[in-house]
Please model this.
Amino acid sequence: MYKIAITAGHYRYTSGKRCLKKLDKNETREWVLNDRIADKIEQLLKGYEGYSLIRTDDTTGETAVEVKDRVKKANDFGADIYISIHHNAGVLGGKGGGIVAYTYTKVSAQTTEWQKELYDALIKHTGLKGNRATPLAKSNLQECRETKMPAVLLELGFMDSQTDVPIILTEDYAEACATAICEVIVKRSGLKKKSVEDKRSLYRVQVGAFYVKSNAEALAKELKAKGYSATIKEEAVK
Ligand SMILES: [Zn+2]
Model:
């Protein structure tokens, strides 16, 4: 069983973590953008089997989960990969920006592979390459330092960039990010697509339901006369 830990950075009310008002009149909160992508990853992974997944943030966004608690949850779970989803700031209303993928300063070759593959897939699917000097960055981040498994923190565009804001607010962008992240998880972990049988459903057509048996019999007779096959199924009523 492959174990995946995903976190949507911050929480709904983290002060300052939001889109710049002059670029987004709604001042969309960072957690909302992070959560949308995390949700989409969960949805896309439902098409696969052989894994279990936890979110280490509060998925309602109502409580602030400290980084040390997120890390503990992932370590206790025994996650094989930890992916932290964020959006950036720092261009102060200017142009440029783009995606940055962080790891801790000293990491295994495996972690560096995750970082590069995630970054490459994100650029392939979103095109949000931006102008950062080091889009594959290393930093002394608590979340990446204290997690025992490979951990990558993704900054998926700048919330104060004229270039990035109109893009990162769209549903299509969130979908593209989730698709890219899911693609790398599936490839690296070897998850299998669920077989078609697992998803098969049976759809019944019902025409009527009666408390009086003779009414059901009359309708069945009428349907049969019209050439339909009709069966009466008796059910107990509470
Ligand atoms: Zn953040």
Remarks:
- The chain has a mean pLDDT of 95.
